[in-house]
């Protein structure tokens, strides 16, 4: 495992972000065609994709293949080249994380670029090309537009702001109960930032991000950004977020401003009640009605 990212690869990550941003800005707030990755579903109900997504990833892939042909690549739009789990170096690309934000003109999407060393993320970039904001992190240091940044020192859930892209990302049952309980312990739950929320955490503005139903290209780039700024990011069981661990993690991630807050949030996810409040109240009401009915029948008998 490399302890430091080679300077040429770190500089190349910036080149990739610059190239992707140049493509994306051409289509920003224009009437681009939006299609679904599953033609059977509505573009907003499923995962929409645009020419900006596909063209910007293609530009980055071409650059990687030309400069570093031995490196593996995993991209959201154009799939895998090589084995990112076992390759010494692999790039994981999400050209437009937050396509729904992009197509509705909200500048909170971002380009995500991760560099993996034998499956572990060691360098990450979150680039917001419209606002000209870029977080770049290694496991030792994170910068925001070239200047060092750090996470907040909040250590109490009741003082923490927690983000998720949408409550609909949590599956009914365990995930929804866990999210509802965690968010109920926090100062406020907020939605709608996609990858931008992780950048805000790295800069000290947000204390927690909790999400589910993610793919590796949705989160691997943000791990070094958060960790390098002083935060901690794992799955819901506390496991490291790596490409080999994805099947175990099931796309569930927890990002916290520091280790103590992470520990509290992780405990809250595991303390979620076995029933939702609505289900519990319905059960208790049904039980009470049953007891009343039995008492009524006894009196009549």
Write the layout of secondary structure elements.
Layout: H1 7-27, E1 35-36, E2 48-49, H2 51-67, E3 72-75, E4 79-81, E5 89-97, H3 99-103, E6 110-117, E7 120-128, E8 133-138, E9 142-144, E10 147-148, E11 161-164, H4 174-185, E12 188-191, H5 196-202, E13 208-211, H6 216-219, H7 222-228, E14 232-235, H8 246-249, E15 253-256, H9 259-270, H10 277-300
Parallel strand pairs: 3-5, 11-12, 11-13
Antiparallel strand pairs: 1-2, 3-4, 5-6, 6-7, 7-8, 8-9, 9-10, 13-15, 14-15
What gap, in angstroms, lies between the N and C termini?
Answer: 78 Å
Mean pLDDT over all positions? 91
Order of helices and strands: HEEHEEEHEEEEEEHEHEHHEHEHH
Rg is 22 Å
Q: Specify the helix fraction band.
A: 25-40%
Largest sheet composition:
8 strands, mixed
Tell me the total number of β-strands.
15
Strand order of the largest sheet: 4-3-5-6-7-8-9-10
**How many H/I helical runs?**
10
Range of strand content: 15-25%
Task: Give the helix/strand class.
Answer: alpha+beta
- Inertia-based shape: globular
Q: Uncertain spans, ≥5 residues at pLDDT below 50?
A: 40-45
Structure report:
- By secondary structure, the protein is α+β, with helices and mostly antiparallel strands.
- It has helices spanning 7-27, 51-67, 99-103, 174-185, 196-202, 216-219, 222-228, 246-249, 259-270, 277-300; strands spanning 35-36, 48-49, 72-75, 79-81, 89-97, 110-117, 120-128, 133-138, 142-144, 147-148, 161-164, 188-191, 208-211, 232-235, 253-256.
- Strand 11 (161-164), helix 4 (174-185) and strand 12 (188-191) form a beta-alpha-beta unit.
- The longest helix is centred in the last third of the chain and has 24 residues, at 277-300.
């Amino acid at each position: 495992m490399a302890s430091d990212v080679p300077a040429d690869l770190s500089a190349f990550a910036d080149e990739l972000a610059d190239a992707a941003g140049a493509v994306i800005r051409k289509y920003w707030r224009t009437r681009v065609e939006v299609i679904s990755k599953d033609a059977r579903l509505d573009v907003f109900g499923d995962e929409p994709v645009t020419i900006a997504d596909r063209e910007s990833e293609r530009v980055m892939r071409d650059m990687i293949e030309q400069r570093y042909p031995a490196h593996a690549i995993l991209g959201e739009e154009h799939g895998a080249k090589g084995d990112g789990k076992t390759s010494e170096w692999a790039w994981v690309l999400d050209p437009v994380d937050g396509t729904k934000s992009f197509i509705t003109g909200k500048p909170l999407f971002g380009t995500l670029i991760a560099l993996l060393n034998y499956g572990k993320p060691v360098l990450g970039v979150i680039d917001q090309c419209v606002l000209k904001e870029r977080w770049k992190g290694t496991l030792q240091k994170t910068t925001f537009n070239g200047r060092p940044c750090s996470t907040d020192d909040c250590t109490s859930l009741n003082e923490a702001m927690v983000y998720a892209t949408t409550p609909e990302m949590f599956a009914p049952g365990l995930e929804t109960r866990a999210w509802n309980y965690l968010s109920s312990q926090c100062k406020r739950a907020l939605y709608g930032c996609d990858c931008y929320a992780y950048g805000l955490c790295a800069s000290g503005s947000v204390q927690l991000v909790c999400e589910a139903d993610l793919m590796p290209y949705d989160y691997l780039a943000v791990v070094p950004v958060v960790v390098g700024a002083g935060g901690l990011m794992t799955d819901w069981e506390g496991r490291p977020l790596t490409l080999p661990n994805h099947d175990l993690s099931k796309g569930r991630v927890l990002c916290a401003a520091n280790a103590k807050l992470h520990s509290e949030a992780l405990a809250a996810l595991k303390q979620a009640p076995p029933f939702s409040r609505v289900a519990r109240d319905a059960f208790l009401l049904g039980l009470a009605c049953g007891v009343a009915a039995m008492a009524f029948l006894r009196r009549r008998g």
